[in-house]
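Chain A, query sequence.
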Amino acid sequence: ERGLAETIVYVIPQKDHGRIIGKGRATIKDLETSYKVKIAIDKGSDNVGLSGGRRGIEACATRISQIVGYI
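Chain A, predicted structure.
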């Protein structure tokens, strides 16, 4: 079956979550649309979950690492 969804959780300090979300949620919306993933930021922890196809998750994780400077 094409595009089996999975979820991978990355540990990104809460202090950087705002950079992923962006002003008016613009960055997170752009990431979700561009990479066809769903991003779940766990308030109160450092967990950021990416759900979707493996290629989209990997590409989105690479972009997030560029935004925050690490992953």
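The first strand starts at residue 6 and ends at 11. The mean pLDDT is 93.
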